[in-house]
């Protein structure tokens, strides 16, 4: 710029809608959210909102959503029943070669799978309490009942044997 050059001032007009959208984007980038599956806190711009759920259930990591879809074998949200978008695919598990799986590993995996599906969800506290009550109160009582029943049966068997012996003694006489 040299002496004597004219300087003109230009006014830049930015529509209010664009300005407020840019400000909203800045706010979103600065916010933290929590993944609904792994419960890790993360910047919202790194999370996805795959369905209509709102609040603390709104955001999730893409890898967590994919894992959830593969575990549940469904691409629907379990809460709002909407298909996840962008469309997440359910990948087929790799085929198992039954010759390579020892019986004990097969049984262990079946037990673990059944335990996973039979335990109540962690969010449902009432179901969890009932489950614990059944496991730690009812089952031991049931086992104790059968132990007593077996002891009672043993006592009855002992009495029957004594009666038979007495009857044999009477016959011998």
TrEMBL record:
Superkingdom, taxonomy of origin: Eukaryota
Keywords for this protein: Membrane, Metal-binding, Transmembrane, Transmembrane helix, Zinc, Zinc-finger
RING-CH-type domain ranges (all copies): 27-87
Biological processes annotated in GO: protein ubiquitination
Cellular component terms (Gene Ontology): membrane
Single GO molecular function: ubiquitin-protein transferase activity
InterPro entries in UniProt: MARCH-like, Znf_RING-CH, Znf_RING/FYVE/PHD
Pfam family, any one: RINGv
Ranges that cross the membrane: 129-148
SMART domains assigned: RINGv
CDD domains: RING_CH-C4HC3_MARCH (cd16495)
Name of the protein in its database record: RING-variant domain protein
Lineage: Eukaryota, Viridiplantae, Streptophyta, Embryophyta, Tracheophyta
